[in-house]
């Protein structure tokens, strides 16, 4: 499978290559694409990647090519607080119209330079689209530094005095929304979507390696006199002779030897000891997986303790480390149910952390990953919809404790028991409600009202009488009306801003 990044910007190409660090061969294509008009940057980029895939999948005669292609596109948006999150995905056109200084002048005119930047990578293999968002809070400043990379010369990440243009590549990586999105793309999908690195294939390969390792050990046992002795463990009862410190060592002599184990040196005993045989197998097969890693359970336990004492940053770091350890085990071909449940729990905790920090994009991202792990979400919602007999209240402050899934419902039917043996998860109804409410509130704070309502509708299906649901519905209606009014006011003010944009003429 060929991998293509679609961009005509040489700076984007160079940055992507440095981020990839030679781990995968990526081709670059400059394709002329028509962008849809939307305030949703993800929707824009997903439309772009599908169009690009269609173009790149055909040869010069217009016929479809047999070789599969994985196509990647990206888009960025700059959301200014003083303009009610405008221009967002339209930053390219605003920058082209008024330039870097014009954007700075707008922020100065309104005496509010707060903003945030979003970068989205979308990946399409011809079947499914995967999108990854990186978000960075910051301020409009400058302009300072090179003008080679869009609006980098007017954006300073939160807590930093330099613009992106003034930073080194390494410094920029620390806070770049593009690099944040890239890390998600690299960690979750690109490695899996190539032909030779499908998750199922990785699992098969790991199992095959384990089988070959066992077979190699068994073959060695058959051909080596030393290992043959291990296999048969033949000997005689004799003595007792030698030290009595080690059980029955003073009465056992291995076949062909006149000494008991107690009379032998350490080195001689190794040649025929059943204990040494067991140790060699342990070392050959499992110790390599256990020594280099940290225990996710211990990390999670420590993180929960930190969270309980108000040490949120330390808890976040430990939850992330625990998640890394779980993912490593999965990559080695051990995606056990316990591992899957642990990852769900950790991601739920991470979504809580980002929710409390008001990092709503990151909160939504963690919730989305959890829901992607449910094999048949709509089927699960249908089942809960039927099972609901009375409403349960899920207050917002109920999200303040770290998750302690079991993430599975206790069902007695045979089909559910069978599912529990598979690498899928069945989230509890109250966990689903919590996830949907958390997403709805996050979308509301981001003023993405349609997505907020979609999540509220999902809550309605399985917990219609939920008190927080009703509160959020009222809040969403008020916020939506207020947002529309503010947008009109901001538009009028922007049109009348002297020296920045042309003055409005006439009425309306």
From TrEMBL:
Keywords: Hydrolase
Record flagged with keyword Hydrolase: yes
SUPFAM superfamilies in UniProt: ITPase-like (SSF52972), TPR-like (SSF48452)
Keyword Hydrolase: yes
Transmembrane segments: none
An example Gene Ontology molecular-function term: nucleoside triphosphate diphosphatase activity
Coiled-coil ranges (or none): none
Composition skew (Basic and acidic residues), residue ranges: 200-224
GO terms classed as biological process: nucleoside triphosphate catabolic process
Pfam family for this entry, one: Ham1p_like
Region (Disordered): 198-224
InterPro entries per the UniProt record, alphabetical: ITPase-like_fam (IPR029001), RdgB/HAM1 (IPR002637), TPR-like_helical_dom_sf (IPR011990)
GO CC terms in record: cytoplasm
PANTHER family reported in the protein's UniProt record: INOSINE TRIPHOSPHATE PYROPHOSPHATASE, INOSINE TRIPHOSPHATE PYROPHOSPHATASE/HAM1 PROTEIN
Family designation: Belongs to the HAM1 NTPase family.
Protein's name in the database: RdgB/HAM1 family non-canonical purine NTP pyrophosphatase
């Amino acid at each position: 499978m060929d991998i293509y990044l679609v961009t005509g910007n040489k700076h984007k190409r160079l940055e992507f290559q440095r981020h990839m660090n030679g781990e995968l061969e990526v081709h670059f294509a400059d394709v002329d694409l028509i962008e849809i008009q939307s305030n949703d940057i993800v929707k824009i980029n997903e439309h772009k990647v599908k169009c690009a895939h269609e173009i790149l999948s055909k040869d010069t005669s217009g016929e479809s090519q047999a070789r599969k292609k994985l196509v990647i596109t990206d888009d960025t948006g700059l959301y200014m607080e003083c303009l009610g999150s405008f221009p967002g995905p339209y930053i390219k056109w605003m920058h082209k119209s008024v330039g870097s200084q014009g954007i700075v002048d707008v922020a100065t005119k309104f005496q509010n330079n707060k903003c945030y930047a979003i970068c989205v990578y979308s990946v399409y293999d011809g079947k499914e689209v995967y999108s990854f968002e990186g978000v960075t809070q910051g301020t409009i400043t400058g302009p300072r530094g090179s003008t080679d990379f869009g609006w980098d010369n007017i954006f300073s990440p939160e807590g930093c005095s330099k613009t992106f243009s003034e930073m080194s590549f390494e410094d920029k990586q620390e806070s770049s929304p593009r690099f944040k999105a890239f890390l998600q793309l690299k960690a979750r999908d690109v490695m899996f979507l190539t032909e030779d690195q499908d998750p199922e294939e990785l699992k098969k390969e790991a199992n095959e390696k384990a089988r070959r390792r066992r077979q190699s050990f068994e073959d060695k046992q058959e051909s080596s006199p030393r290992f043959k002795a291990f296999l048969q463990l033949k000997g005689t009862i004799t003595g007792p002779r030698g030290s009595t410190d080690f059980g029955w060592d003073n009465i056992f002599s291995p076949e062909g030897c006149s000494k008991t184990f107690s009379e032998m040196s350490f080195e001689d005993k190794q040649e025929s000891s059943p204990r040494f045989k067991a140790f060699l197998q342990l070392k050959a097969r499992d110790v390599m997986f256990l020594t280099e890693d940290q225990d996710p359970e211990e990390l999670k336990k420590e993180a929960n303790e930190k969270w309980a004492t108000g040490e949120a940053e330390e808890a976040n770091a430990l939850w992330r480390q625990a998640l890394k350890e779980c993912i490593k085990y999965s990559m080695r071909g051990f995606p056990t149910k316990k591992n899957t449940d642990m990852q769900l729990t950790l991601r739920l905790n991470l979504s809580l952390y980002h929710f409390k920090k008001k990092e709503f994009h990151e909160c939504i991202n963690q919730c989305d990953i959890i829901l992607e792990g449910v094999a048949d979400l709509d089927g699960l919602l249908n089942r809960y919809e039927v099972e609901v007999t009375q409403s349960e209240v899920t207050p917002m402050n109920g999200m303040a404790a770290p998750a302690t899934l079991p993430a599975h419902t206790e069902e007695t039917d045979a089909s559910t028991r069978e599912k529990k043996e598979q690498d899928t998860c069945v989230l509890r109804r109250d966990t689903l409600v919590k996830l949907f409410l958390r997403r709805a509130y996050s979308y509301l704070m981001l003023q993405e009202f349609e997505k907020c309502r979609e999540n509220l509708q999902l809550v309605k299906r399985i917990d219609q009488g939920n008190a927080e649901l009703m509160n959020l519905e009222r809040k969403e209606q008020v916020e939506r009306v207020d947002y529309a009014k503010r947008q009109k006011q901001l538009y009028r003010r922007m049109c009348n801003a002297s020296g920045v944009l042309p003055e409005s003429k006439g009425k309306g």
